[in-house]
Structures are given as structure tokens and as C-alpha cells.
Specification:
Blueprint lengths: L1 H15 L4 E2 L4 E2 L17 E5 L4 E6 L2 E6 L2 E13 L4 E7 L2 E12 L8 E9 L2 E9 L11
Antiparallel strand pairs: 1-2, 3-4, 3-10, 4-5, 5-6, 6-7, 7-8, 8-9, 9-10
Length: 147
């Protein structure tokens, strides 16, 4: 039940991240805009990273690689892509548990480097919620380091 609730809230947050909206009905964003988020193309590779604890990975062609210090090579899972009104999410199963990664536009810092990322990453993995940053092969981070 908790996972279904989180996924529902996550899907709504993808829509709600857009500022503005119709104050009368509480709906976020431009109500006439029914198009899915197009800021990240389906063919772009999405990279994500977070700290406390450290985690990172990438998504490409329906496959997501999730890495941690305990699993440096990473675990690959199949994911479904969903484009909401203000972001994309990738959902799958890792070790028989829900795995949900939401990527929304917004300047993001990992707090450990001088990098600025173009996207915020929100992750639910192994029953934990985590916050991090994301970028794509076509929309890189700014700052030191190689992509």
C-alpha cells in the first residue's frame, strides 16, 4: 500500500512541480497544456546521482543501472518511462521491490562538488526515499569533472 501511495504521489508531483495554475481548483500549471514533458527526449541517456548514502546510475533504452558503493558495477533492471506534465519517471523492480526514479527540471547541487545539474532526481528504492540530481547526455551538468 505504501508503495502504491508513493507512486501516486510521485506521479502527481511530476505534474505539480510546475508553478502557477488554477487557484480555484488547486490544479498546478497551465490547465490547457495536456502534452507530456518533452524536456528529456526518449532517446537521451539520463544520469542520476545522490549522496547520504552515495548512489548513482543511468537510464537508456528501457534499462536502468543502479550503483552504490556496495555494488560498484551496478544492477541493471528494466524500467518503464512515464512523461508527466513537468518531468519523467522510470519505474521497475529491484530485488523484488518497487524502484521509482522521478526526474524534474530544476537547478540542483549534490552538495559535494561545485557542479550544477539541470534536473532534480527523486528516488524510491528498497523502501527508502532519496534526493539527488540528474543530467542527460544532451543536457550536461556545469562545473568540474568529466561526464
Amino acid at each position: 500500500m505504501k508503495n502504491r501511495l508513493f507512486i501516486s504521489v510521485l506521479a502527481l508531483s511530476l505534474a505539480a512541480c510546475n508553478s502557477g495554475g488554477d487557484a480555484a481548483n488547486g490544479a498546478p500549471g497551465d490547465q490547457s497544456d495536456t502534452q507530456p514533458f518533452s524536456g528529456i527526449g526518449e532517446d537521451e541517456v539520463v544520469y542520476f546521482t545522490g549522496t547520504e548514502p552515495f548512489w548513482n546510475g543511468e537510464v537508456s533504452d528501457g534499462r536502468l543501472t543502479y550503483s552504490t558503493p556496495e555494488d560498484m558495477e551496478g544492477t541493471v533492471i528494466r524500467v518503464d518511462r512515464f512523461a508527466g506534465r513537468n518531468g519523467v519517471s522510470f519505474t521497475g523492480r529491484l530485488a523484488d521491490q518497487d524502484f521509482v526514479l522521478a526526474v524534474t527540471p530544476g537547478e540542483c547541487s549534490d552538495g559535494m562538488s561545485d557542479r550544477t545539474y539541470p534536473y532534480v532526481a527523486t528516488l524510491m528504492v528498497r523502501g527508502e526515499d532519496r534526493a539527488g540530481c540528474a543530467y542527460t547526455d544532451q543536457q550536461p551538468f556545469e562545473g568540474p569533472g568529466e561526464i
